[in-house]
Amino acid sequence: MSPGNWSQVTAFVLLGFPRSHILRFLSFLGLMVAYIVTVTGNALIIVLTLTDRRLHTQMYFFLRNLSFLELLLVCVVVPKMLVIICTGDPTISFASCIVQSYLYFLLGTTDFFLLAVMSLDRYLAVCRPLHYETLMSSCTCCRLVLASWVAGFLWVLGPTTLMASLPFCGPNNIDHFFCDSWPLLRLSCGDTRLLELMAFVLSTSVLLGSLVLTSCSYTCIIATVIRAPTASERWKAFSTCASHLTVVLIVYGSSIFLYIRLSEAQNALLNKGASALSCIITPLLNPFIFSLRNNKVKQALRDALRGLRPTAARDCERHK
User: What residue stretches are annotated with the G-protein coupled receptors family 1 profile domain (predicted)?
Assistant: First the structure.
């Protein structure tokens, strides 16, 4: 189609929502509960690791940043979903769609880099304990987190800029619940082969590169744990990494399924399910995985609750 025969699409229609009123109500209820729990849980981890001095260590510094990432990720996707289900209007403007897509992949890419950094931190803590404080100083931790954000920003900026400049002349229906890149590319009436290749190479390099670093770190950790002289020492070393390893398996499992395979071969329902796992379920599980399996976080939470009880009692007496 020649440039003079098409008009640029100004909005997209998200079709990845149930049509039945009952299913829409149940979806809204489930999403609202998941959103509230996710925001509350991750915010609680951020507050606890900031205020409790026992959690002012490198591991909890990275955990705080991971919770912040998960908090932002769920806020990028879920509020718009709730608005669409509540109002019944599935449209999203072109600009909002591009911004949502960029933020989603920015946060997701930064998440991969941060998980790789956290695996390196656990490797140094378990395999190089005598040099850990020197190698993983506070300044080094800040630089690693900043580098993760900068890398994520730059990694996604180019493809998103190119995608925003593509012509979209209709149709404008996206069979998804948010503005994923592959459905958007299929709607363009321009040549997307170069952008598809770039997106595939970049996503594959991020996933495989961070996965190789994470796998190497945990291979060394497991080898060190096996060589520990006593069962208690083996359990102590492994317990410090179990929560992070659980999150790694969930994140990489869903993301490899989504972005390593060619989009044409993907089943739409499974695609949406894997997307929900990465941007809704994982942020929801994050605070439970790290708090329920971590004695220091649980103790900090108990102490914080005990500190609130006397204050609440004094407030009640004052009002009487």
Answer: 41-290
